[in-house]
Specification:
17% helix, 3 helices, alpha+beta, homodimer, 7 strands
Chain lengths: 120, 120
C-alpha cells in the first residue's frame, strides 16, 4: 500500500503521496488551502497541474482548482508550496466539482493557461 | 481527501494518486509489480524515481526499488508502465526496506543511475 511507506521528503525530492495534502500559501504566507493531487504527463513524468482545494477560503470548499504547476514555488520555510494567487484571482478561476472532472484536452489547457497568463 | 476525487486519467495526463498502484510490466507484457509512489523534484515537478514493489516476484516482496522514471514507458495497451527489467537485473538492484529510506542524495542518485546505466 502506498501509504505504508515512510519515505516522504529529502532536500530535493518529495514523495508523490506527500505532495497530496501539502499546504499552499499565498505570497504573504497565509494558508490558502492544500494540494489534493496533481496531474502528471504519463510519459515525461512532468507535473502539469496541481489540483488544489481552498476549503472555506472562497466559500466553495468542494471545488477543485487545477493550477499550472509552474506557478508553484516550494518553500522550505513553510514546508509547502507558495502561489501568487488571491481571492480576486480565484473568484473566476477554472474549477470543477467532484463529478465534473475536465478532460485536460488542448482546449482546456488553453483556457487555464490563458486565465493565469502562463504558457502551457 | 485525495482519494475522493475521481479525476484520474486522460489521454496525456494521469493523476498522481492513480500512478500510485499502477501496474508495471516487463517487455514481454508479464506483470512485474506495481508503483508504490514516486519521487518528484519539489521545484520542477519532474518525477525522478518510480518506487516499485515486486511482490513475490523475487521473494522479497517487502522491499522498495527506486527505478529512474526515464526507464518507464507508458503503455495504453496494458494500462500501465513497461520497463526493460527482469529478475537478473533486479537481483542486485538498489532497494530499501520500509524503515531504511534512502536520502536520495547525489551519491545515491549516482549509485542508482550507474546500476541501471542511465543518466540522472
Amino acid at each position: 500500500m502506498a501509504h505504508s511507506l515512510n519515505t516522504d521528503e529529502t532536500s530535493q525530492l518529495i514523495a508523490s503521496n506527500k505532495v497530496e495534502g501539502t499546504a499552499v500559501f499565498d505570497m504573504d504566507g497565509e494558508r490558502l488551502g492544500s494540494i489534493t493531487n496533481f496531474m502528471v504527463d504519463k510519459r515525461s513524468g512532468k507535473a502539469e497541474y496541481a489540483v488544489m482545494q481552498f476549503g472555506g477560503f472562497l466559500g466553495v470548499g468542494a471545488d477543485y482548482y487545477p493550477v499550472p504547476w509552474q506557478m508553484l514555488s516550494y518553500s522550505t520555510d513553510h514546508g509547502g508550496y507558495v502561489v501568487d494567487l488571491d481571492k480576486d484571482m480565484l473568484e473566476d478561476a477554472p474549477r470543477f466539482a467532484d463529478d465534473e472532472e475536465p478532460a485536460y484536452d488542448n482546449s482546456y489547457n488553453q483556457q487555464v493557461s490563458t486565465y493565469y497568463g502562463v504558457t502551457y
